[in-house]
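Allow me, if you will, to draw on your knowledge of protein folds for a short while. A protein sequence and the structure tokens that stand for its backbone fold form the material at issue. I would ask you to consider whether the tokens describe a fold that such a sequence might reasonably adopt. Thank you for your consideration; the sequence and its tokens are set out here:
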Amino acid sequence: MADGLRVMSSYFKRSWSYVREETVAAVKFDTGWKKEMPMFQFRKVEDLEDWIVGSDADIGGLSEAYWGLTPENSALFWGTISTKVPEGAKIDRSGYAGVRSQQRPLTLFHRPRYDTTLFRYLAIRAKGDTRQWFVNLQTESIYPSYLWQHRVYFQRPGEWEVIMIPFRDFVLTSNGYVQKRQISMDRSKIKTVGFSLVRQPGDFALEIDWIKAVNSPRTLGDYDILEPGEYLDAQGSLRKLAPGQSLREALGGNIRIFPDNKKDGSPP
């Protein structure tokens, strides 16, 4: 009875928190520039409890994978990848390990998602090894197997690095295969974040401090913030106007600029 009351209390607290946050956001109508949106930070054991570890051992393989808190209060994903297929196992291939967040807890109104549309990059402060890692994002989709992935190589194995991956560079995959028909990821409804290794035998280790959605000082989601006198040319490269040059002159007559303030009726 007491456990049930605690669960219900937590459920209604989450629901009230959601109403409060959404009301504040609606009143402010805040769609302006923000530096970052924290998603995960690992400081205590409870921060790791909402993550799931998996490997080929779940289906009869020999890989080992573990998830724990370091003495320095960071998350550590470690273990051993084995590509050997045990005799008598009902699998054809082996050699996989991964860890991912669980979906956020349900509220009275909906299941919250991470809305990253106002941010350009997924940023991860981590300490990796020499292996090729995959960063995995799952969003709401009619196909449960859809996963957006990006490869990560650490430049300084064994040292802390901040990896910044543009959200638009993630590639759609399904069941481990890149899809020929790529569709845009719904960045307003990110459900889970994860990391994985495939068919790289031996010991592995990935230490994670935090995960955030971030902007640079010159980005707002997929938009670039330009200083006065700057513009993007037809190839998307950043340019500066020459002294006394107008934007209309720089872009040429083939590009129409709004609002069109010309009064003589000639083409812009």
